[in-house]
Design brief:
With 221 residues, the chain is α/β, with parallel strands linked by helices. The protein has a single domain, classed as P-loop containing nucleotide triphosphate hydrolases (Rossmann fold, 3-Layer(aba) Sandwich). It contains seven helices and seven strands. The protein has helices spanning 21-29, 85-100, 120-134, 149-154, 159-165, 168-176, 192-208; strands at residues 6-15, 48-51, 55-61, 64-74, 107-113, 142-147, 181-183. Strands 1, 2, 3, 4, 5, 6 and 7 form a seven-stranded mixed β-sheet that branches. Helix 2 (85-100) packs across helix 3 (120-134). The longest helix has 17 residues, at 192-208. The chain is globular, with a radius of gyration of 17 Å. It starts with 5 loop residues before the first strand and ends in a 13-residue tail after the last helix. This is GTPase IMAP family member GIMD1.
Length: 221
């Protein structure tokens, strides 16, 4: 909380190469802070923090409207084309402690592509990586962001039909994070109204968590 009329939410985006982490971060911020483009190798090699301007009309508490600020930490992917798992883990862990060490983290957003199936090995490695970063309570502070939802829609899948046809691996992951998930339409995510819908969903997850934060401290191994 910066003041009584303003709320700041702290988010980190995590995921594999080319899932759209940086693009999702830009959508949440309403900016182009993070470098995002198609590439045969991992684009992001270090962590960077983006901050939004004050956003109005999104959140009310105790009958009063609050201005919202969003802080997003963009991270290198795991697996990474040029960095080891340990390098990525230590880089992200250090950045989380540096940027959110005092205020805490509201949500980690695990970015997955809605147009690609989630395989068991991939899910296991991803979950293990998040556990190493966030600790044993990671499930309470993680939500899934399904990008490229427009491609799934083009293929004839509504949100309901998509989940009905989804792999047991994805459904198990969504269940473990208490069904905190959001479909992100890459074509519409730059639209102000679409961004407001996504932010309201994230705030609802945070509200369901009683506005708790995950406190992160840097630990060397």
């Amino acid at each position: 909380m910066a003041d009584s009329n303003e709320m700041t939410i702290n988010l980190v985006v995590l995921g594999r190469t080319q899932t759209g982490k940086s693009a999702a971060g830009n959508s949440l911020l309403g900016s182009s802070d993070f470098n995002s483009h198609c590439s045969p190798s991992s684009v992001t090699t270090c962590c960077s923090l983006g901050r939004s301007c004050r956003i109005s009309g999104i959140i009310r508490r105790n009958g009063c409207e609050l201005a919202l600020r969003v802080q997003v930490l963009d991270t290198p992917s795991y697996p990474h084309s040029g960095l080891s798992k340990e390098q990525v883990r230590d880089t992200v862990r250090s950045a989380l402690a540096h940027h959110f060490g005092e205020e805490g983290l509201h949500l980690a957003l695990l970015v997955l592509r809605a147009d690609l199936p989630l395989c068991p090995d991939e899910s296991d490695h991803t979950i293990q990586f998040i556990q190493e970063l966030l600790g044993p309570t990671w499930k309470d502070f993680t939500a899934v962001l399904l990008t490229h939802a427009d491609k799934a829609e083009e293929a004839g899948f509504s949100e309901e039909a998509y989940l009905h046809s989804a792999s047991s691996t994805l459904l198990s992951l969504l269940s473990s994070v208490q069904h905190r998930y959001i479909f992100l339409d890459n074509q519409k995510s730059i639209i102000k109204e679409e961004r407001a819908i996504v932010l309201r969903k994230l705030l609802n997850f945070i509200r369901q968590n009683n506005y708790q934060v995950l406190l992160l401290k840097h630990s060397k191994e």
